[in-house]
Each structure stands twice: as structure tokens, then as C-alpha cells.
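C-alpha cells in:
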């Protein structure tokens, strides 16, 4: 099975750069920005809530997300230009859990 990082990079036709996508998990949907760097590093930033004072990009490595290494934003929901990136139809909808096979 492919990891989340592999699915983001290869399975949905996302270009190098920043793309709007949607993550799904247990019936919930959350928009996110995914950045695929020119050397293949993958970063993500989930849509912040109005009251979020701090939010940051997190690195996606395999099936793990690593926070604390990415760019930090203060009051991201108050930044009109940044929040405009979350408007529109996501390029892909990516489940965070894969279907399991019956054994």
C-alpha cells in the first residue's frame, strides 16, 4: 500500500507547488493546502479556524506528519490573502484512512 506522502505526490495529479485539496476521515472533510517542493518534499496546512492564534505547515513523510519544522503563521484566519487560497473546489479528495480488506 502507498503511504500518504506517495498518494499526495503520485496518485492525484497534483503539480509541484501549492494545491488546494480535501482530506477526509470518518465522514469529516477538511480543506488543506498541499505543497510539493521541486525536490519532492511534501508539506500541508489545514484550513485554520477563526480562533486559531497560531498554525503552521507540517511535513508529510511516509504516513507520518511532522509539526514544528514548518513555517508558522500568527492569526492565519485574519490574513485575507492567505485564506483566499482555501476558496474553490479542491483538486483532490484524499482519505486519511485506507479501506481494509476482509481476511
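Residues out:
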Amino acid at each position: 500500500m502507498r503511504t500518504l506522502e506517495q498518494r499526495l505526490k503520485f496518485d492525484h495529479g497534483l503539480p509541484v507547488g501549492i494545491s488546494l485539496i480535501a482530506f477526509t476521515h470518518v465522514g469529516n472533510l477538511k480543506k488543506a493546502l498541499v505543497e510539493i517542493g521541486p525536490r519532492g518534499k511534501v508539506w500541508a496546512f489545514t484550513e485554520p479556524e477563526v480562533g486559531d492564534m497560531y498554525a503552521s505547515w507540517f511535513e508529510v513523510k511516509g504516513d507520518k506528519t511532522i509539526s514544528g519544522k514548518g513555517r508558522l503563521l500568527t492569526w492565519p484566519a485574519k490574513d485575507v490573502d492567505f485564506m483566499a487560497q482555501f476558496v474553490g473546489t479542491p483538486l483532490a479528495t484524499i482519505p486519511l484512512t485506507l479501506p481494509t480488506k476482509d481476511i
